[in-house]
Amino acid sequence: MGERELVERARAGDRAAMGRLYEAHAGRVFTVVRRLAGEHALADDLCQEAWIRAFRKLHLFRGESSFGTWMYRLATNTALNGLRRRNRRPEVGGVAEPESRATPPDEAVINQRMLSKALDRLPPGYRRVLVLHDVEGFTHREIGEMLGVAEGTSKSQLHKARARMRELLAPSPGRNEVENEAKTEA
Amino acid sequence: MLDDAEENAAAARHLEECEECRREQALLRRMRMALSAMEELSPPAGAWGRIESALPAGSGAGGEGRSDRRATGSVNVGGKARGRIPGWAAETATPLRLAAAAVLFLAGTWVGVIVTGSSSGDPVAGGDAPPREPAAVTDTGDSEELHDVPAGSHLARLQALRSGGPTPWEAVRHPEQANEYLARLDALIRASREALEESPADPVVNDFLFEVVEERNALGEALHVASVEYR
Hints:
- By secondary structure, chain A is mainly α.
- Chain A has helices spanning 3-11, 15-37, 40-56, 67-86, 106-121, 124-135, 140-147, 151-169, 177-185.
- In chain A, α2 (15-37) crosses α3.
- Chain A is globular.
- Chain B is mainly alpha-helical.
- Chain B has a two-stranded antiparallel ribbon.
- The longest helix of chain B is centred in the C-terminal third of the chain and has 24 residues, at 175-198.
- The interface between A and B is large, with 77 and 58 residues.
């Protein structure tokens, strides 16, 4: 069954069709929301909000883009608005991060885990810009529109975010704190 | 990379001479590559079940039916998410349960959100939007945050309407204050729609309006007042 038909059935209230749309795009949606939120429980809640909103607003989906693209943008906006409302910061050393699907070699696992931990430790404003630009590939103009800031501000924040990430990840004589945590948990 | 070609050329010359900066650039490049290649995560187990159980009966056919409004909405008490309004609040039509749902709904993220009544002094009505100013950044060390609401933006003006008036708790407990609160929400809905006439694709204002309509209709049902449409 094609995506168009699934969307039509979901519009008509077909829960099975909704479930299939969810299965097809849940990973992508959760990934971007999790990266923006910086913590697992909050991301779960924001994703739930996004999916419910999507199925309620499905009549607004015109099919000019794929459902996945539409859902992805909706989830990103929902997450950003939700974070703005909550104005929360991630708890350091909070809920354990679930394993990703792949099982890469040890070094790559540490790097991915260090990267994830470092992202979670960034101040929320930095994290949003870094995730949107370097992880998700949005342009500064798009980020400006999504966050309601000037394009130059997005660039400036990105520069600072990268510098902060660099501090969190950089090797030092006493080793960086993120690497220490990753090795302790390994 | 720098924006200016001359700056790029100067940077390239410097990198040829400075090993420390070359190492730094290499590290940043690796970091950016790693960020762009971050693995996709799996949503938590049981997530679809929770989503499906929160969907009202007949959802997906328009999203603006009465049952939809009653069954959905954030319940966020004390800054911690408590999930959606349970299905029983959507299925039953008793005033007591609707009022309870309205209390839970209003006690969440909209605590303290007050709308001033529309008047000639309404900062949103009429006039051209002032030019967008760069957002201010507050440098507070680890808590450095981005004030991402430019002065003069639609969202800033809508948020400026929040001042004084009853809290959602007071609105539900005291009918005279509920009517005032309802009037303020109606004014905020009008202001949001005006803002959307200027920027119809603005996702922030769209979501702002959507949430205010949700809140207004939840309160309206508890007070047996006619609902409003999103548009």
